[in-house]
C-alpha cells in the first residue's frame, strides 16, 4: 500500500523524523511515540547509530512502522532495507536513486522541491513524494500553488515544519501527511526524556487529528 495514502487515511497523519545518536535509545523512543499516538518513525541515515536503531525498533517494537530517511544512494537503500526499514524517504531524487528505491519493493517518498522535479516523478508513475525543505522552499503557500497544475501529486512536507505550521499544511488537498523533528527534538533525545517525546507526540496527534477528515 502506498505510504502517504496509508498515513493520510490514519487518524494522525504525522511522520516523526528522528536523528538517533545512541541506538540504545531507539526502542524507548519508538515506544514513547507509540504511547503518544504516533506509531511511525523515520530514522535518518545521518548518524552511525541509524541502522542499529532501525534494526532494534523493527525487532522489538513491531507496532511502530519504522523507516529510513536521508536515503541518498543505492547503498543507503540496501543498508536500510537490510536493517528492516519498512519505508524509505529521500531529501531529493536522481534516476539512479529512484531505480534503487523502486527495486527495493518498499514504499518510498522521493524528495522534490520544484514543479519540474514533481513532473519527472509523475512521468514515472510516482505520485507520492516528500516536499523538502518545506518551509525554506516556500511553505504551505508554495505547495498550495502546485495543487492546481499537479493535482495527482501527494506530498509530505518536511523541513522546518512545526507544531504551529502542521495544521495549515494538512489542510491542503495535496498533502498526505507532515513530517519533522519537532515531535522528537534532539535535546529530548540527548536527555533520554521519553516523557517529553510522548507528550510532544500526543500534542502533535491532538493538533492534527481531524483537520481534514
Ligand atoms: C528531514 O530530514 O526531513 C528534515 O531534516 C527534518 O527537519 P526538521 O528538523 O526541520 O523537522
TrEMBL record:
**Keyword annotations of the record:** Carbohydrate metabolism, Lyase, Schiff base
What GO terms are given for molecular function? 2-dehydro-3-deoxy-phosphogluconate aldolase activity
Which pathway, metabolic or otherwise, does it act in? Carbohydrate acid metabolism; 2-dehydro-3-deoxy-D-gluconate degradation; D-glyceraldehyde 3-phosphate and pyruvate from 2-dehydro-3-deoxy-D-gluconate: step 2/2
Cited Pfam families: Aldolase
Q: Does the keyword Kinase apply?
A: no
The answer on whether this UniProt entry bears the keyword Transit peptide reads: no
What InterPro entries does the entry give? Aldlse_KDPG_KHG, Aldolase_TIM, KDPG/KHG_AS_1, KDPG/KHG_AS_2
Q: What is its EC number?
A: 4.1.2.14
Q: Which domain of life is it from?
A: Bacteria
Q: Which reaction does it catalyse?
A: 2-dehydro-3-deoxy-6-phospho-D-gluconate = D-glyceraldehyde 3-phosphate + pyruvate
Alphabetized PANTHER family for the sequence: 2-DEHYDRO-3-DEOXY-6-PHOSPHOGALACTONATE ALDOLASE-RELATED (PTHR30246:SF1), 2-KETO-3-DEOXY-6-PHOSPHOGLUCONATE ALDOLASE (PTHR30246)
UniProt lists the family membership as follows:
Belongs to the KHG/KDPG aldolase family.
Subunit text: Homotrimer.
Its recorded name reads: 2-dehydro-3-deoxy-phosphogluconate aldolase
The organism named in the record is Streptomyces thermolilacinus SPC6
Amino acid at each position: 500500500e502506498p505510504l502517504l495514502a496509508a498515513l493520510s487515511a490514519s487518524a494522525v497523519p504525522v511522520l516523526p523524523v528522528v536523528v538517533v545518536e545512541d541506538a540504545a535509545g531507539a526502542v524507548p523512543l519508538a515506544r514513547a511515540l507509540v504511547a503518544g499516538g504516533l506509531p511511525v518513525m523515520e530514522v535518518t541515515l545521518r548518524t552511525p547509530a541509524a541502522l542499529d536503531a532501525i534494526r532494534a525498533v523493527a525487532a522489538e517494537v513491531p507496532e511502530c512502522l519504522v523507516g529510513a530517511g536521508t536515503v541518498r544512494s543505492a547503498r543507503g537503500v540496501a543498508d536500510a532495507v537490510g536493517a528492516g526499514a519498512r519505508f524509505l524517504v529521500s531529501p531529493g531524487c536522481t534516476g539512479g536513486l529512484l531505480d534503487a528505491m523502486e527495486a527495493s519493493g518498499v514504499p518510498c517518498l522521493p524528495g522534490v522541491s520544484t514543479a519540474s522535479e514533481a513532473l519527472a516523478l509523475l512521468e514515472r508513475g510516482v505520485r507520492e513524494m516528500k516536499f523538502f525543505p518545506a518551509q525554506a522552499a516556500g511553505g504551505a503557500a508554495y505547495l498550495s500553488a502546485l495543487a492546481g497544475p499537479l493535482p495527482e501529486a501527494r506530498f509530505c512536507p518536511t523541513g522546518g515544519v512545526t507544531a504551529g505550521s502542521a495544521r495549515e499544511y494538512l489542510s491542503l488537498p495535496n498533502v498526505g501527511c507532515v513530517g519533522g523533528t519537532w515531535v522528537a527534538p534532539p535535546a529530548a533525545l540527548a536527555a533520554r526524556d521519553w516523557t517529553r517525546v510522548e507528550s510532544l507526540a500526543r500534542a502533535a496527534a491532538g493538533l492534527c487529528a481531524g483537520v481534514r477528515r
